C-alpha cells in the first residue's frame, strides 16, 4: 500500500516548521492544527467566503482549497504575521480605528486579502472594475476596492468600513513614498 503522507517544510510568519501531513491535508488545517496559527479561520471550506485567506509568497490564497504539500518551501503569511515588532500593520490599525469588523470572524481573511490586493494594485494589475486596463497604475476607488475584495464575505456587513480602511491605508502608503 502506498504511503499517503509527506514530510514538508512550511515557512509561516518567519518561522520554519517541519511537518508530516497526509497528502490530502489542506494548508488551512495544517496551519491551524499543526503550527498553531489559529487566526486563519475555516468558514465555508469551499473557497467561497475568504475567511481562510493567507498570503502564499505574497499572493492571496484561500487556504481551504490549497493542499499543504503545495506550500512546500513557500513563505506563508497569516494574520498573525502582519504585525511587525509588536506594531500593527497599517491595515490592522485602520480596521480597528474605522470599525472594519464586527464579529471579527472574517477579519483575518479580509486583512490578508487586503494586503495582497494592495500589492496587486501597486504592481499595476487591473481588476474587472478597472476602467482603463492600459494604465500603469489603475485608480483605486471604492468600486475598485469592492471588486478586488469581492472574494471575502462579511456576514455582519462591515463592508463600507473595510473599504474605507483599505482606501485610507492605500492613500497613506502613497503619501509615504
Ordered list of secondary-structure elements with their pairings:
Blueprint: E1 5-12, E2 15-22, H1 27-34, E3 53-56, E4 59-62, E5 75-77, H2 90-97, H3 107-122, H4 142-148, H5 159-176
Parallel strand pairs: 1-5
Antiparallel strand pairs: 1-2, 3-4, 3-5
Helix pairs in contact: 2-5
List keywords for this structure.
single chain; 177 residues; alpha+beta; Ubiquitin-like (UB roll); DNA polymerase, domain 1; five-stranded mixed beta sheet; globular
**Radius of gyration based on Cα positions:** 17 Å
Q: Please count the helical segments.
A: 5
Largest sheet: 5 strands, mixed
The CATH architecture of the largest domain: Orthogonal Bundle
Strand order of the largest sheet: 2-1-5-3-4
In total, the number of domains comes to 2
CATH homology-level superfamily of the largest domain: [2Fe-2S]-binding domain
Show unreliable segments.
Answer: none
Q: In which range does the helix fraction lie? A: 25-40%
CATH class of the largest domain: Mainly Alpha
β-strand amount:
15-25%
Helix-strand string? EEHEEEHHHH
Overall geometric form: globular
Describe the structure.
- The protein is α+β, with helices and mostly antiparallel strands and 177 residues long.
- The chain has two domains: 5-81, Beta-grasp domain (Ubiquitin-like (UB roll), Roll); 90-176, DNA polymerase, domain 1 (Orthogonal Bundle).
- The protein is 32% helix and 15% strand.
- It has helices at 27-34, 90-97, 107-122, 142-148, 159-176, and strands at 5-12, 15-22, 53-56, 59-62, 75-77.
- Strands 2-1-5-3-4 form a five-stranded mixed β-sheet, with helices on both faces.
- Strand 3 and strand 4 (59-62) form a beta hairpin.
- The radius of gyration is 17 Å and the shape is globular.
- The N and C termini lie far apart (57 Å).
